[in-house]
Design a protein that fits this description.
There is one protein chain. The chain is built from ten helices and ten strands. The protein has 324 residues and is α+β, with helices and mostly antiparallel strands. It folds into two domains: 16-126 and 275-315, no CATH class; 142-267, Alpha-Beta Complex (Aspartate Aminotransferase, domain 1), CATH 3.90.1150. The longest helix has 30 residues, at 97-126.
């Protein structure tokens, strides 16, 4: 099994050469890399990944980017771009723009390395997924819905959950993965039934792009994800046979959800629509990068103007723009 390639916390921030080393280590093709480790406010760090690496890679790239608080986007070709719209630093900051960019690259590569390690381990142990998050048979805007629903608190409905998995379901919900229905698949919870299939169904509109995180969660923990028939959920199945294997599958799901939930907490907070955070103004934009990027020539034109429009809209036309 491949080991992680990122540095420890005490080492210096990543250079472009070190970024390429991590990407090459995991064998993920990238078509364009602009490190922008400089003090030029007109330069933007971005990285374009090739989506044909293997089935489902897009969800994992989105998950890593969201953990690192970069902005991920699907390009018209199906490739994934991640970018970080930092142009200036606060006057009181001890870091230059170039140093800040080194730091955000370091964060992205740490989470990319973490997710790739988890995904590769999951694929080796539990097999490859059968469906892709980004290119499944679903309405084009389906996985880009901005949440409008507020589910009932899990404490009020947990009594309806199968006894053995109640703690698992509570843990999933408290870590941001809101469930809508489930079945333990265990004989002890379904006396008299000869055939019971374990599954859990998640609300895929609870927060922005949670469905991508759910597909990664499933692949890492050994479950098989698919979009549910209702049009607003992601359904997990498991091929575990017998009560012993099924209990292990539930345990893995709970453990990974706790880990992912902690790493995604800041992202969930920042994309809360009612809070109006600056990050959310970028994250809610769809095809922002695509409008300015040519996949044929690998050039980015007019993007700074788009960023300035968002900055002025967020702060007001008469406000001084102090980029974060």
């Amino acid at each position: 099994m491949s080991q992680s390639k990122t540095k420890t916390e005490h080492e210096e921030s990543m250079s472009e050469e070190q970024i390429r080393e991590v990407l090459d280590h995991w064998g993920i093709p990238y078509d364009d890399l602009n490190s922008a480790v400089n003090d030029d406010p007109e330069d933007i760090p971005y990285l374009v990944f090739n989506h044909e690496t293997y089935l489902g890679i897009e969800a994992h790239l989105f998950t890593a980017a969201d953990m690192a608080l970069w902005i991920p986007e699907l390009l018209p070709s199906g490739d994934v771009v991640v970018y970080y719209p930092i142009r200036r630093v606060d006057d009181g900051s001890q870091y230059s723009l170039a140093k800040r960019r080194e730091m955000v690259w370091d964060t992205l590569m740490r989470f990319f390395d973490y997710i790739m390690h988890k995904v590769h381990k999951g694929r080796a142990e539990y097999g490859e997924p059968t469906e892709s998050w980004a290119h499944c048979e679903r309405e084009p805007e389906g996985y880009f819905e901005i949440p409008e629903n507020r589910p009932a608190p899990i404490d009020k409905i947990v009594r309806l959950v199968d006894t053995y998995i109640r703690e698992v379901i509570v843990a999933l919900n408290r870590n941001g993965f809101v469930t809508t229905e489930s079945c333990s698949g265990l004989k002890q919870d379904h006396q008299g039934k000869t055939s019971i299939e374990p599954y859990v169904c998640f609300d895929d509109e609870y927060y922005l792009d949670v469905s991508a995180h759910l597909f990664t969660l499933a692949n890492v923990s050994g479950w098989d994800p698919t979009f549910g028939a209702h049009g607003f959920d992601v359904l997990f199945y498991t091929d575990a046979e017998g009560d012993k294997e099924t209990k292990r599958a539930w345990g893995r799901l709970e453990d990974v959800a706790r880990e992912f939930g902690e790493y995604l907490k800041e992202y969930r907070d920042l994309v809360e629509p009612e809070e109006g955070y600056y990050y959310y103004w970028f994250r809610r934009e769809r095809c922002l990068f695509s409008r300015c990027y040519s996949e044929e020539s690998r050039t980015l034109l007019g993007f700074i103007d788009e960023l300035k429009k968002i900055e002025h809209e967020f702060r007001g036309e008469d406000d001084e723009v102090d980029e974060e």
